[in-house]
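Handout for the seminar on molecular recognition.
Each group receives one record of this type.
Step one: identify the two inputs.
Step two: read the structure output and locate the region that could contact adenosine-5'-triphosphate.
Step three: write two sentences on what you found, then compare them with the reference statements printed after the record.
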Amino acid sequence: MQIGTSKLPWMGKRIGMFGKGGAGKSTLIALLARALRERGYPVCVLDADSTNLGLFRILGVSQPPKPLMEYFGGMVFSGGAVTCPVDDPMPLAAAEIDLEVLQPEYYARSPNGIILFIAGKIGDQGPGAGCDGPVAKVARDFRVYIHGEAPVTLVDFKAGFEDTARGALTSLDAAIVVVDPTIASIELAASMKQMVEQIKADVLPATAHLENPDLVAWANKIFVEASIDQLWFVLNRVQNAEEEEYLRQRLKEKGIEPIGVIRQMPSISYAWLKGTPIEANDALMEVQNILGRLENAEQSTGGGG
Ligand SMILES: Nc1ncnc2c1ncn2[C@@H]1O[C@H](COP(=O)(O)OP(=O)(O)OP(=O)(O)O)[C@@H](O)[C@H]1O
Ligand SMILES: [Mg+2]
């Protein structure tokens, strides 16, 4: 039931998922992708976690696609073309791709029509593979078009702050931070907020290590031209009202108000244990509600398009 995509306020957006290890990034990617499909969006998921392997199963994909890293010629550390964005901020060449011309081994389609890409995994690079910065560059720069239109792209980042420090936020329209009930998650949420505020205020990135002035100029340009304008926080794995209240209070002290809460649910941990799609209707309904509220906010502020 595809409705006219021009009426969908999130069309074309690139949205990144962040949070500490195990907070629930991939869970929320799967739920949000499904909620977006149900609303009629063409949806792409870019698995940009260089280490974890399980996302394809949770999306109901039987065979993971080949990593885009191979499409782009491999990592610089193994003699390939893809560099780390910290050493080389230059955009990845020819990273905007029409799905119709991409070889089908580089993507997979889930039964409900979610298109999955994998940026790259360092586990398949052998021992001493270098660093996973090149994976962050693919995540930063890869853009896909389907029949000439940009879908919604959800990017599942690696845990923690590293990809953010490498500039992953600069090519996103919005980011979501998943906050589980830990002090580490609360602190990461505050750091992400500060980082987005700094990017919006045109604070320049670290470039003292770059000797070539052209590279310094590129790094600065990428940060100054960054279009990220939304940062949302979702609580996950919350066990009871007391825990939720505590989390909300601590986040409020840091100027953060979550847009939704997903409870700790056996059906979610069971899905991850078995490697099957999540059958948690409460969680899906909450994500649908969050999406509805955000879409309305988008339409009333006239943002995006
Ligand atoms: N709401 C929930 N209820 C129950 N279990 C959950 C919930 N959310 C996540 N989990 C459990 O926590 C684990 C981590 O979740 P998930 O893989 O989504 O986190 P992640 O942030 O993507 O982790 P990683 O940093 O390892 O990529 C899952 O294996 C699942 O068992
Ligand atoms: Mg994950």
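Reference statements: Strands lie at 14-19, 43-48, 96-98, 108-109, 115-118, 143-145, 152-157, 174-179, 230-238, 260-263. The longest strand covers residues 230-238.
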